[in-house]
Amino acid sequence: MYEEYIKSERTPAGKVLEHILKKARLTQKQLSEKAGIYPQRISDLIKGTRAFTIQQSFDIEKALGIGIEGYFYKIQANYQVYAYLTEKELVKHPDISKFGSALFWDTRIEKINWIRNKEWVVQRVFEYGNKQEIDEIIRFYGKETIRTILQGIKSNWKRETRERNYKEFVL
Questions:
Q1: Domain count across the chain
Q2: What is the extent of the structural domain holding 82?
Q3: Are residues 147 and 123 located together in one domain of the fold?
Q4: Domain boundary pick from 37, 61, 90
Q5: 76/60 Cα distance (integer angstroms)
Q6: What are the pLDDT digits (tens) for 41-50?
Q7: Which tens digit of pLDDT belongs to each residue from 112-122?
């Protein structure tokens, strides 16, 4: 039952604990009594204002009957690695001044993870972008990456525009 959460890298350990408590219909106060941890500490763990210690993880696991040693501590470590890598990836981006506000109308351009979302970015730019925007995406990702991504798109939406821009700028 609990194994599904341990592989989650995008969910903080406190949110997992909160979810488990809701499913078990336990209050934070009840957990604090069973685990021998101050109620405020449980609240801080759930909010993410405090990190789990190994001891707290063991105490809470025991109180909840979770048989995976270091369960919350491991989830926390997975999340911290994910958050660190995401932070590093957000530093890598094209020259944002080259993009018009209309191109990414549905999102905040400064929040785009250009590494993890490159397929979406390339498709968007080749479907709606102008010459300057397309040139910047090609400079940032490189022609080979662009070719691979564009050839993998199955959608017929704006296919002609994508293909025309591919022929004009990439080939």
A1: 2
A2: 3-90
A3: yes
A4: 90
A5: 14
A6: 999 999 999 9
A7: 999 999 999 99
